[in-house]
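@channel sequence for tomorrow's demo:
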Amino acid sequence: MIRYLSACNLAPGPAGYGIAALDGAGRIAWSANAPARGHTVEASPDGRLLAFIERKPGAAITVYADGTVLRRIAAPEGWHFDGHAVFSSDGRHLYATESRDGDQAGRIAVLRLDDAARIAEFSSGGIEPHELIWAVPDRVLAVGNGGLADRLATEGEADSSLTLLDAETGTMKCALRLDEDLVSLSIRHLVRTAQDEIVFAMQDQDPATDWRPLVGVVRLDGSMELLEMPRAELMKLRGYCGSIAIDRTGTVAAATSPHGGYAALWNVPERRYLGGVELRDGCGIAAAEQPGQFLFTSGSGTRLLIDAARGVTSRVLERPASGLPLWDNHLTAMPTNS
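structure tokens (generated this afternoon):
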């Protein structure tokens, strides 16, 4: 049974761009070529449709049905997709982040999948939005606005925010911003816990960093706090979190740093750091079958099982001699009701 999805390179170079599905043990169930490099793959709640969202600046979103291309939805002229999207609970609509070329003004596109029609657009509440998730299914979207007017910038301040938006009207319910001493942090990736809190992961645009915290928690009442970890281990993240996931219980969060080759884990309800593991050249992470466990994919083809249930450990599931596929940024767990 398919449990995970990922964009990947099936062979080196642009000709090898692809999409792959994995089973519960991390074995490849099927793979297919893709028209461009992907950033993430999302599945409809029933698992029938897959949305392959291209790496920012994405020219299109490709929709698959039963492993074959159903349609390709192009970004409008002057805009590009930003790498992430979510399905509505009935699987009929896709909500995608996108930015305007030049100034990176952000908005959410609402796409009807039956005919690829764009039925609504509304502001993301910031610039350069990246990941969006359901804070309240089908009602409230949470959006991480990365806040980088120049998407190629490698340093400086970020106009970053986490916004909560009414999914029907686009009305902003609230916008949360970091303290002034954290203005170099860009909010990028989000997950929702079993307690309906939102855990967010960030990237630091300041190369002369003071090693600022990179993971935080937001409650739906608007309060925000940062998760602590030992300074020596925080430094291993190298100011960059590339992906974040929550385990099957909705209580253990794991953030990966491909720059630092490290993953850090927390018990979110207790706000307690659990520890970390060394990971070479990897970013993709998703909940595994058991509480406290995660499947991890790397850019060198390796798949690991990370276990926080009895101390934080890792075990190699597969390390292909060919190094292929080269796994891209995100690993997505299939919806539990698919």
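heads up for whoever presents: The chain has one domain: 2-333.
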